Amino acid sequence: MKLYYSPGACSMSPHIVLEETGLPYQIERVDLKTKVTETGADYNAVNPKGYVPALVLDNGELLTEGPAIVQYLADQVPARRLAPANGTMERYRVQEWLTFTGTDLHKNFTPLFMAAPEEWKATVRTLLDRRLATASTLLGDKPYTVGDSFSVADAYLFTVLTWTDIVKIDISRWPNLIAFRARIAARPTVQAAMKAEGLIK
After folding, report:
1. Rounded to two decimals, what is the model's pTM?
2. CB of 74 closer than 8 Å to CB of 17
3. 27-68 pLDDT tens trace
4. Number of domains in the chain
5. Which residues, including other chains, have CB under 8 Å from residue 175's CB and lie 6 or more apart?
6. How far is Cα 107 from Cα 123, in angstroms, rounded to an integer?
7. 156 lies in some domain
8. Is 62 helix (H, G, I), strand (E, B) or coil?
């Protein structure tokens, strides 16, 4: 398998999950401005959507969208318990977290990475404050988003929470989010993915 990624972007979530699976894989960096990969390929020819992540499977099929990719990967190694079994309420809870993280958190960060009007950014920051407060309430005092062990939903929430430092959002108001981010960051698989992306030494 090959994962197309951009350092620290939402593609870090499937990168972490790939490390968790123990399956063999390759990564290829994408310049999201030029849409050229590190090998000089036209990324739009790989993924017509033009954004990361994209996972090329061993049979040549292309899978895009982070929540779909991480669930696919989890299902390849059920013994690793990266996602509960399909059809269980716990699986729907993982999907619930993946959707909340993708639509309520992830998408609301996007304007803060763009040359958007300051008024818009101020509105987005207010909305993100509410969404982060919701994430804190939903997480509560649990160590992970769903159940008592790490799941693909944790990889995605962790990835999005790393962006708060980049855009200068202070999450010290929510100690449980700080603790969650530190807990996930300490995982060897997370460290490996972040090192491979050049985010840490």
Report:
1. 0.96
2. yes
3. 999 999 999 999 999 999 999 999 999 999 999 999 999 999
4. 2
5. none
6. 13
7. yes
8. strand
